[in-house]
Amino acid sequence: MRHDYILNYVPFGGAKYDGKPDDVTRFVVKNQLMRSDDWNQFIKAYLNNLDTEDEGWRGEYWGKMMRGACLTYMYTKDEELYKVLTDAVVGLLQIQDYRGRISTYHPDHEFYGWDIWSRKYVLTGMQHYYDICRDEQLKETIVKALCAHLDYMCEKLGDGEGQKRITLASNHWLGVNSCSVLEPVLRMYDMTKNERYKEFAEYIISTGGIEHELDLIALALEDKVMPYEYPENKAYETMSFFEGVLMYYELFGKEEYLTAVTNFVERVAETDITIIGCAGCTHELFDHSAMVQTEPHNNVMQETCVTVTWMRLLHRLYRLTGKAIYAERLEQSAVNSIYGSVNTHMLEMYYQWKVGGNKIRPLVFDSYAPLYNGRRGVGVGGTRFYPDGFVYGCCACIGSAGPALYPLQAVMKSSEGFTLSSLWAGKIKDKTPCGNDIELNITGGFPIGGEIKVKLSLAEAEKFEIKIRVPANNKKFEVTFKGKKYTARNGYVKIEEEFRDGDVIDANLENALTEVKLNGKTAFTYGILTLARDSAKEGSAKDLTKELELARRCNKPIYELCEPEGEEMIRINVKLSDGSTLLLTDYASCGKRWDNEENCMMTVWMNVK
């Protein structure tokens, strides 16, 4: 029994938001996704089997970036981008060999290292392009190619004679990276209804996702062991595997799989998600980051790949269940971690995990996110070089999916009406449940606060519902329609009325500076925004670890909102006891000048008396 999504996207290009969501998405299109030369380099890795010698993962780049690019197109409907993506798809299809293989590993050395992982991204990249493709003949070609690509894997992998067990087809992370192919395999079944693909998916599930006596699905169902205590603790790949488990539930309705995924997500949120919505304070590993995030970390931490995959899992659960908590968590990740990872000044990147390493050309996404007295730009995650000197990284490829998912989710439609999970100013055009034209025009000061209005333009009067999610961490949020106040339930304010052309829903959002305390340190939030100090903004290389004493009134910090500068969403001066001020701005805008070697530190967690 297939479980369809409760919430669905508005038409491609049907929403246009103002401010950060639109600015970031279009920055990514211009500076990354439109670079045809990069797409051609990705394809060369398959043509020349470049991952064979160093057991690399160049084969993931094309599909990772194609997935994010297609999601981006769904928001922008940029026709120039569509052409670039079409060319990249046709280019990859042309190098498929007679056996159906599209792999960066030589046939004599296949199915080890990151081979299946990379083949997974061929599937998922092509499948996402299929969703936006307008050429029926090309769609048929894609399905035929992907079937041949997957048939080869079905033939070679398994527990039968002459086959290789999928959990042993990688020497990394107990094979969970290979088992994460589960989701696109199930999608191939959904596209073709080929029973062979269902059987292959059930074989992968039967392994439990890892080569170990313990089983990831069983561990999640028992709900006693935290993800950082699993036999393997690689955050990104483990979440990707559970995305496949969730799709099995979507297609076949096995309730225990939904329970396993929701248990897993709740434990990750409880034990490993930090104040900016990412995980992994030890590289990209589950490590109880929710607790250790306040500590100094000399290693790289909180990888962008982890953030995007967490967002993907949340987004899928949100669309499937409509539960507000999943949208809330995705928003935390988007406005803090993902927006913070965008290389807005297009600075050169370090490919070594230390300050002073060799530099490469600017990439659009930074790979790692500091929280306590650290700096950005300290390394490019998943770096691999090409023979001609070209270099790329995993986080740069996956990054674009994050900025795309957030505006795609902001306003979604259901059979009953519309759900507004975020209130960014913008215009949304769609059809009502009865098929009439509608435009939602949102204005106001989200996410900072103040009056927000949702004006409806309707072809004719109609009764349906509009649900507005209550923003997280607010001091006050009120919604009125035609003089009537509406109360929130289960994270939403629900208005079910007969709407007419020109109707306006009024919302009032009030936020306040909030102190968050953990392990003897303090961080600050303002509504959905995590705040940080930035030594470059403060004008000198100050000691960000020095203890601060806040001036207080009625035991609350004394502060004032100032006019944001540059790319900032918020700027706050907090009064200290000695009469000076502490400058706090949104985390996403901090640490971006890592080219200033003497003055590039930032911190979220602070030592406060």
Label this structure with key terms:
alpha+beta; seven-stranded antiparallel β-sheet; 19% strand; 609 residues; 18 helices
In brief, what are we looking at here?
The chain is built from 18 helices and 26 strands.
What does this protein look like?
By secondary structure, the protein is of the alpha+beta class. It is 37% helix and 19% strand. The strands form 6 sheets. Strands 4, 18, 19, 20, 23, 24, 25 and 26 form an 8-stranded antiparallel sheet that branches. It has a 7-stranded antiparallel sheet with strand order 1-9-10-11-17-13-14.
Give the helix proportion (percent range).
25-40%
Inertia-based shape: globular
Tell me the total number of β-strands: 26
Cα Rg: 24 Å
Counting helices, strands and paired strands, the structural category is alpha+beta
Mean pLDDT: 96
Q: Alpha-carbon distance between the termini?
A: 57 Å
Protein topology:
Elements: E1 15-17, H1 20-33, H2 36-47, H3 61-76, H4 79-93, H5 115-132, H6 136-156, H7 176-179, H8 182-192, H9 195-206, H10 216-222, H11 235-252, H12 255-271, H13 289-292, H14 304-321, H15 324-341, E2 349-350, E3 359-360, E4 374-375, E5 384-385, E6 391-392, H16 394-398, H17 401-410, E7 411-413, E8 417-420, E9 426-431, E10 437-444, E11 450-458, E12 462-469, E13 476-481, E14 484-486, E15 488-489, E16 492-499, E17 504-510, E18 513-518, E19 521-526, E20 529-534, H18 535-538, E21 552-553, E22 556-557, E23 559-562, E24 571-575, E25 581-586, E26 601-603
Parallel strand pairs: 8-12
Antiparallel strand pairs: 1-9, 2-3, 4-26, 5-6, 7-8, 9-10, 10-11, 11-17, 12-16, 13-14, 13-17, 15-16, 18-19, 19-20, 20-25, 20-26, 21-22, 23-24, 24-25
Helix pairs in contact: 1-3, 1-17, 2-4, 3-4, 3-5, 3-17, 5-6, 5-8, 6-8, 8-9, 8-11, 10-12, 11-12, 11-14, 14-15, 14-17, 15-17
